[in-house]
Specification:
The structure is a single chain. The protein has 90 residues and is of the alpha+beta class. It is 31% helix and 33% strand. The chain has one domain: Alpha-Beta Plaits (2-Layer Sandwich). The protein has a four-stranded antiparallel β-sheet with strand order 2-3-1-4. The radius of gyration is 15 Å and the shape is globular.
Length: 90
């Protein structure tokens, strides 16, 4: 399983429409509007890197209103349970 976080800049008038389109794409599990240097964040979970590449290059970048993306591929997941055990004082 490949997990990625995609940071997205959108033309201001298109934020809600882009978020709706992205949230309906296979492989995108969640879309958030955020404050800061980016307008949207999409969480992606797909089976392989090639699927992620197709999703970003062929589908996400083709959405009207998106001006820039930055894809962060996750190497390892840490759940709250994992973090609690790593930093436990017991």
């Amino acid at each position: 399983m490949v997990t990625a976080v995609i940071l997205i800049n959108v033309e201001p008038a298109h934020t809600a429409a882009v978020a709706e389109i992205l949230s309906n794409m296979p492989g995108i599990s969640e879309v958030y509007s955020v404050a800061g240097n980016y307008d949207l964040v999409a969480l992606v979970r797909v089976k392989e890197n090639e699927t992620l590449a197709d999703l970003v290059a062929e589908h996400i970048r083709g959405v009207d209103g998106i001006t820039r993306t930055e894809t962060l591929i996750a190497f390892r997941a840490y759940s709250r349970h994992d973090l609690d055990s790593l930093f436990s004082l017991d």
